[in-house]
Amino acid sequence: MQTGILVSLAAYFVLMIGIGLYAWRKSTSDSEGYLLGGRQLSPGVAALSAGASDMSGWLLLGLPGALYASGLVEAWIGIGLFVGALLNWIIVAPRLRAQTEEFGNALTIPQFLANRFPERATGLRVVSAIVIVAFFTVYTAAGLVGGGKLFETAFAALVPAADPYFTGLWITAGVVLAYTMVGGFLAVSLTDFVQGCIMVVALVVMPFVVLTDDGGISAVSATLNSVDPGLLSLTQGLGFIGFLSAVTWGLGYFGQPHIIVRFMALRSVADVPRARFIGMSWMGVALLGAIGVGIAGRAYVEQNGIAVEDPETIFIVLADLLFHPLVTGFLLAALLAAIMSTISSQLLVSSSSLTEDFYRLFLRRNASEREAVNIGRLSVALVAFAAIGLAADPESQVLGLVSNAWAGFGAAFGPLVILSLTWRGMTGSGALAGLVTGAAMVMVWIALGWNAAFLGGTGIYEIIPGFVAAWAAIVIVSRLTHTGPVKTAAAE
């Protein structure tokens, strides 16, 4: 059995590295090629790359686990994310693709903001780059912890002489580093495309097989109703604050650099509608599949008297129990794909900020394209090793910081990106005020514990006050500092 799993995983790793080598030959001769794939992504690749880099292990571990434990009420997070992603494609994608090219052919979000607001260029580039590198190092560590725990849970027999957690940590990091450092953005995007396909196939196959084994939808409903009728309710125990905190996860999309950078890399603005259709179709199927895994998996466990210690491992448990080893290997590769697609995107965005917004800004303004690409590769490695250090303790709370980092990015960059693309009256001072206010509000909210309990009641997700405060800061400061004509947006 273990041999079949190992064969599937080995084939997956070879495919990822092969794609990296292909991308190395195609698009790593200059910074635009290494960091944005030469702005030549097709709609399908851009759409699935954005989706795969977004969802990470949360799609196959976190969401099914939440539904397994609490029922359909947890689906509101997925609904909020779907609506947020759709609005991101409608509001941000076409404008960002046009304006990043018009304003100095910007290769990073900090560079775009600096070009858009030259009066506060240095401040915007430095502060936004610090936020990106700091949060993405933690994000990357969380992904590596996921890879380590996957090996610890499912592959212990494959590495009996070693610590499976650290083996998984280094294998995950090593493969991601190999194709990201070699092939840059094109490698990351193409591997994301393949990984997105693997993920969605797994999320269609697994709930279908589980439902078949359970006896169908009616049998699943009967089983869950006998355990707790609330498991199939979208409103069981859900108050207004809980509902608001769940659906406002979607606000985070507007400020996630590793997602919106895909919009910058599209071939043209004309490709946005097709990419949006592909991306949202993929996301809808994937979310429904994840919901199916959690709900049908709970019924399967109840019917068969199986003990599941950690709800977030339900995907791994079902893969091991219900499928041939080769298929199990494919399904576990899908889980690794979810983890690795996000890690590679975060590493590359962090690398681009270190290269373009630190090295070229302060150390070597006249660095050659070859030098910049090599510095980009070195930066990928540096961020990865820092993340490995954070992930070295499997009992660390790194994974718990993911929702906080999502809120931090969403609040710091969300209002900033939306208004910089759509409002002509925005100023550089307003942009800097919004960036600092959004990040600070999220950190203060978390530090005070108000995301867990607010004024004695239910906690409020920190992205809500952070997003509102940043938006208000941008508008107020921009109106106070607007003294004349400002650069207009390219596509409104």
TrEMBL record:
Question: Could you tell me where this protein is found in the cell?
Answer: Cell inner membrane; Cell membrane
The Gene Ontology terms for molecular function here are: L-proline transmembrane transporter activity; proline:sodium symporter activity; sodium ion binding
Q: Which reaction does it catalyse?
A: L-proline(in) + Na(+)(in) = L-proline(out) + Na(+)(out)
Where are the membrane-spanning stretches? 6-24, 75-93, 126-145, 165-186, 193-211, 231-254, 275-301, 313-339, 372-392, 398-419, 431-453, 459-477
Q: Per its UniProt entry, which superkingdom is the organism in?
A: Bacteria
> Matching InterPro entries, A to Z?
Na/Glc_symporter_sf (IPR038377), Na/Pro_symporter (IPR011851), Na/solute_symporter (IPR001734), Sodium:Solute_Symporter (IPR050277)
What Pfam families does its record include?
Answer: SSF
Q: Which UniProt keywords apply?
A: Amino-acid transport, Cell inner membrane, Cell membrane, Ion transport, Membrane, Sodium, Sodium transport, Symport, Transmembrane, Transmembrane helix, Transport
One GO cellular component term: plasma membrane
**Primary localisation category:** membrane
Is ATP-binding included in the keywords of this UniProt record? no
Regarding the membrane, this protein is recorded as: Multi-pass membrane protein
Q: Name one GO biological process term.
A: proline transport
Q: Which family would the database say this protein is a member of? A: Belongs to the sodium:solute symporter (SSF) (TC 2.A.21) family.
Q: What does this protein do?
A: Catalyzes the sodium-dependent uptake of extracellular L-proline.
- For this entry, the protein name equals Sodium/proline symporter
- List the source organism: Parapontixanthobacter aurantiacus
